[in-house]
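#struct-queue
[09:14] JT: dropping the first one here, sequence first, then the structure tokens:
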Amino acid sequence: MIYFDHAATTPPYEDVAKTVAEVMARHYGNPSSLHRLGEESAKLLDKAREVSAAALGVRPREIVFTGGATESNNMAIKGVALQFAGRGKHLITAATEHPSVLESVKQMVSWGWEATILPVDGDGCVTVDQVRAALRPDTVLVSVMHINNETGTVQPVEEIGRMLKTVAPRVMFHVDGVQGFGKLPLSLADSGIDLYGLSAHKLRGPKGVGLLYVREGLQLAPLLAGGGQEGGYRSGTENIPYIVAFSKALRLAAEGREARSTKLYRLRERLTRGLAELTELTVNSPAQGAPHIVHFSYPGMKAEALLHMLEEEGFFVSTRSACSSKRSEPSRVLLAMGKSKEVASSGIRISLGDEHEEQDIDALLAALRQSVKRLQALR
């Protein structure tokens, strides 16, 4: 078995899995309790916040732990919209964003806000000029992801952030960083990003925990009312075992980023060269995309057929984003990029991890060539 679906979720580090078990067994006190067990848990929470902040290059008080990036994205978009409703009710995002962003924006529209959904080019990119042109006096938030989870398109988030701080400093800038952290460099402090969401399980951490970076000085309307945990932004008893494990995964992802990125780019190049030799396939990922995601289509064939053939050979890939892989309609991301319905209905995503080696890529390509031949014979 070779797992090529890291963009959906990642196998946890062994040390991270051990951390969950150890902390769960030994430090079960509620961090809000005043007795010794509670104080021990509170200290672990504080340390995890410090480690996470150091990995992101921000202040510990700017870290809000959540249940995952979907919650973080909802918190950012709705929290800004509700907090600044008196200033304006206009939001800007891109057509290829993750569902947790697009559906949050659509929900705000159903509640009376207005939104501009920016189109993308053939590579899936928006431009700084597009964002600038969409700004209105009543715009309160721009949300653009760092790396697209389906195609690996890298958006110019640093340039957008710097433009916003110069042209419209009162407009908040949110970035879904799920696919970018640990793969590409991004300075939150220098890029004008106000809000940045992450999910642990995309970084070889546990599922069910994430964070939202909230720039100091920015106030959000909380979505969850209750005991006032996480600075009042996210009430509910903190999941100490998962948060501690998440902070360890974050640290490991940050420390190994440069070497990981170099290796993944080398593997990506080997994979795309092999795909180019299969004339039946169409590569949808841009040449200058993220190091770990390669998306291609086999026009005229059902993606599920190719996926299951590869699975029979011991290779696990996906058809698109995990959040929409069970839907039968064409990929909305590929359609937004101008791809035909035939191409958008037959996509396969391969997403790499740091455990992969060149022989794994070669084995995948061999299985892919064999599967393509089998499908041709069935036509």
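[09:21] JT: and here's the second one, same format:
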Amino acid sequence: MSRPTTEQFHQTSRTKAIAAGNEEASTTLNLGEFQDVDTLTLSEAALVINALVAKRRNDRKNINETEMLSKTVDYLDAFSRFKKKENVEAVERLLSSHKEFHKFERAQLGSLCCETAEEAKTLIPSLTDKISDEDLQELLDEVNKLMPN
């Protein structure tokens, strides 16, 4: 008895469509529908969320915070690197001065606070051909000067 060949079988399923949410931040940024969306660092997001929560608390004495909001505030408080508004704004100005970076890359640099250019390019591979190691190291040194001790 001969074995059936692949030509003898009919396709029983549809070809798989490319799933939405196939975003990728590798050497090439493929952010899909988020490609041109403004991006915040964790420190900027913490400022925004904390200001919103404070305003809600002032406006309504019985604020009903959701568990998700509380967890988000806790996360941002734990992982935002810059706590003072002046430092958050200074980091944003430093990063925004580099027009060669995508908004996403600037937000990643401001959130990760890498110590070396090599670390930054490893964690954010799309930076590799956009800036020299020396210039990136200079930028990272300036950002890290703004971090609390």
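[09:30] RK: nice, looked through the second one.
[09:31] RK: Residues 117 and 132 are 9 Å apart (CA to CA).
[09:31] JT: good to know. The chain has a mean pLDDT of 84.
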